[in-house]
Design goal:
ten-stranded mixed β-sheet; alpha/beta; 305 residues; single chain; binds adenosine monophosphate; UDP-N-acetylmuramoyl-L-alanine:D-glutamate ligase; four-stranded mixed β-sheet
């Protein structure tokens, strides 16, 4: 059974204090699919690009066995483009531009043979499109949804409609505060869970992530990194590692969901080590396992005195 991913496939122009890159491979669905591809196969990507989308980028996705039957290529249209600039505090990012291009008229169509998918990852795009994808799935079993401040600001009603139907909602700390107008994250988390999603994950950038369920608050550490080259896609890689691991193990127990949060953090840590998707392109499962174990060591302590 496949893992279905919808979201943006983009050409990103990114500036960090260390370097600058134009028209690099990016997009929420791209990062999610690449991260998930180390755990599950096939990952099915639903999205759209223009005829200017470079062939080598298609090849990167294909090399990771990502199914592209649901990736529409629009003749005479341009690919979605996004530009961002990071400051010395890499948690602070300015969006320089967002050009929707082929996304403006995007009508996501799930190929017939994938409509019975059970595991769905709704990567960051217009919540109306996320909803449209979900409506085509006959019996979704586990739906993970990500979003961003833009949609909270301009499409809050649609987003609220959507999150009623998802099992896991992922957003970052500032987005949780924006959505609830509540500065305290614990209170904000309670409010968001009352809006629908049973499981909530609040990402805190380089400070880790918090998982909220009915009976747990689990705090995942962040990997202490000396090199953070480009934080773009960290959130999406987290989502990809999280759902990819759960899809592979088919175990949705509370303990396994905690493990999935650590696999998500593991994939995010690889992502930020290099520009664009480079940090996710050539990993081995052994490397992923090693880093997963390092995460365990980070918060292991002897409780006896
Ligand atoms: P993240 O750093 O995880 O928040 O995700 C960064 C990715 O999100 C980049 O590769 C962008 O192409 C993509 N992105 C930025 N803005 C949007 C948007 N409005 N809709 C869809 N994807 C976006």
């Amino acid at each position: 059974m496949s893992l279905l991913v919808v979201g943006s496939v983009a050409l990103d122009s990114v500036e960090t204090p260390f370097d600058k890159i134009d028209d690099a491979l990016g997009g929420s669905a791209t990062y999610i699919s690449l991260a998930a591809s180390y755990f599950s196969s096939p990952v099915v990507l639903i999205g759209v690009v223009g005829s200017d989308f470079p062939k080598p980028y298609i090849e990167i996705l294909e090399e990771h066995n990502i199914d592209l039957d649901g990736l529409q290529v629009k003749e005479n249209e341009k690919t979605f483009r996004w530009g961002g600039k990071y400051h010395y505090d890499l948690n602070v990012r300015d969006t320089l531009f967002t050009e929707l291009n082929a996304f403006e008229k995007f009508d996501p169509v799930i190929p017939e043979n994938f409509r019975k998918s059970k595991f769905i990852c709704l990567g960051n795009i217009d919540p109306k499109l996320q909803l449209k994808v979900l409506e085509q799935i006959s019996e979704p079993q586990f739906v993970v949804c990500d979003t961003m401040n833009l949609w909270i600001n301009i499409m809050k009603e649609d987003l609220l409609k959507l999150i009623k139907k998802v099992h896991v909602f992922i957003l970052n700390d500032s987005e949780a505060r924006l959505l609830t107008e509540e500065p305290n994250l614990i209170k904000a988390a309670k409010m968001i869970r009352e809006m629908g999603p049973e499981i909530l994950i609040i990402k805190k950038g380089e400070h880790g992530a918090l998982l909220f369920t009915d009976d747990t608050i689990f705090s995942a550490p962040a990997y202490p990194m000396e090199i953070i080259f480009d934080p773009t896609g960290a959130g999406d890689s987290f989502a990809g590692g999280f759902i990819g691991y759960l899809h592979r193990s088919r175990d949705l127990s509370a303990e396994n969901i905690k493990r999935a949060v650590i696999y998500g953090s593991t994939m995010a840590s690889f992502c930020v080590e290099k520009f664009s998707t480079k940090g996710l392109e050539d990993l081995s499962y052994l490397q992923i396992q090693d880093r997963f174990r390092e995460f365990k060591k980070l918060s292991n302590f002897d409780e006896s005195d």
